[in-house]
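tokens incoming
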């Protein structure tokens, strides 16, 4: 029996496929390649020393998805497929609702048709909206501050409703904080389209000379150095958390929700320093106004995952920066 990975050619999905293969699981990947390259799949296969069954399928294409379920015995789904750019979601809300929400509905219906009722869902700390305090526990109030966040929150609500109505579903909602890092091989990593929105890929592109300098958004926050604080989690730790969640679902707990973070925050300037150490060169940066909508601090209380899954992040900041730098310096233009 295989684990179906939707969005398995993407940044986090490709790392999940690799760790699942390394852990002895069988996988099958679907991805429409709207934000990824098939090369990622080939590289994962090369690193794992095993072929990766891949179908170029859009999860909204019910017939195509149905054929994948019809030809491969699937026991569970890890659902990474989705659009994730906050700014883009503000300009194109319908595209985000169609892709993320409608795509998930089709996936759930096809799963149900084939008797597959175990799902690990990629949620986000964005469902906490603008948190009133830190660290953030899973019981904090939920809200959405943009269409991307609303799509994640709606999917979470939908999955809670589904589990209430049909108790045979086993679902894990995993709320990621700030995934970063790459497989230590330097063969796979984050390859954003165009100019990166997120801090670490931006810094990496400054370090490699693709971008001239980083704008530090806000230096007057009530934080230790005035810049924003976030919980950066190594992508390998993150995907190992998914495997622990899958093991948890095998005990039939119903619906479970976990923060996947490290439980500590770093400021933008601390990230600039750390990346500079990893790359062996200073990261050119300037202080700039705040980015609208940003919280001063966002970091997790990840103790529930530690208690209930026996999981915690073990990879530190320097290791994360070194791994990003290995990927970026070996692949200055990403997969292209
Ligand atoms: P990504 O864009 O690298 O990966 C998503 C993959 O899904 C891509 O390969 C894309 O081609 C595919 N995809 C999108 N729509 C699809 C569709 N309709 N049918 C089939 N494939 C489709 O993003 P990522 O960073 O790997 O994120 C994976 C998941 O984790 C997303 O759901 C994202 O919202 C969530 N998440 C990411 C972060 C982050 O900072 N990277 C944080 C929180 C949550
Ligand atoms: C992002 C997402 C959010 C998601 C969260 C966790 C955006 C706009 N928001 O937010 O929906 O829930 O990840 O996955 O994508 N920064 C700079 N200069 C830059 C880029 C960022 O100073 O060029 C700062 C930001 O102000 C922030 C920190 O770096 O303080 C991290 O930013 P980013 O990587 O975009 O992550 P989040 O803001 O946490």
């Amino acid at each position: 029996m295989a684990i179906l990975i939707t969005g398995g050619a993407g940044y986090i999905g490709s790392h999940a496929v690799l760790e699942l293969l390394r852990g002895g699981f069988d996988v099958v990947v679907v991805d429409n390649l709207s934000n990824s390259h098939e090369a990622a799949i080939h590289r994962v296969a090369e690193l794992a020393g095993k072929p990766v069954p891949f179908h170029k399928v859009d999860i909204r294409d019910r017939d195509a998805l149905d054929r994948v379920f019809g030809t491969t015995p699937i026991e569970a789904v890890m659902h990474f497929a989705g659009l994730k750019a906050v700014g883009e979601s503000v300009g194109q809300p319908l595209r985000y609702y169609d892709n993320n929400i409608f795509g998930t509905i089709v996936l759930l219906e096809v799963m149900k048709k084939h008797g597959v009722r175990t799902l690990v869902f990629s949620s986000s700390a964005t469902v906490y909206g603008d948190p009133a305090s830190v660290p953030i526990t899973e019981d904090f109030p939920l809200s959405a501050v943009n269409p991307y966040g609303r799509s994640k929150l709606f999917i979470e609500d939908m999955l809670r409703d589904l589990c209430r109505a049909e108790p045979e579903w086993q679902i894990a909602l995993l709320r990621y904080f700030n995934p970063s890092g790459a497989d230590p091989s330097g063969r796979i990593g984050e390859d954003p389209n165009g100019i990166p929105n997120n801090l670490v890929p931006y810094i990496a592109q400054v370090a490699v000379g693709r971008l001239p300098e980083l704008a530090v958004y806000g230096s007057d926050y009530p934080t230790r150095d005035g810049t924003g604080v976030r919980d950066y989690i190594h992508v390998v730790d993150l995907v190992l958390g998914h495997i622990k969640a899958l093991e948890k679902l095998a005990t039939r707990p119903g619906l479970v929700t976990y923060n996947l973070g490290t439980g500590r925050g770093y400021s933008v300037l601390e990230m600039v320093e750390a990346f500079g150490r990893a790359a062996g060169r200073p990261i050119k940066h300037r202080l700039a106004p705040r980015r609208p909508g940003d919280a001063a601090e966002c970091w997790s209380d990840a103790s529930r995952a530690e208690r209930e899954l026996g999981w915690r992040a073990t990879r530190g900041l320097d290791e994360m920066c070194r791994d990003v730098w290995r990927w970026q310096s070996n692949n200055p233009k990403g997969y292209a």
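note: The chain has a mean pLDDT of 98.
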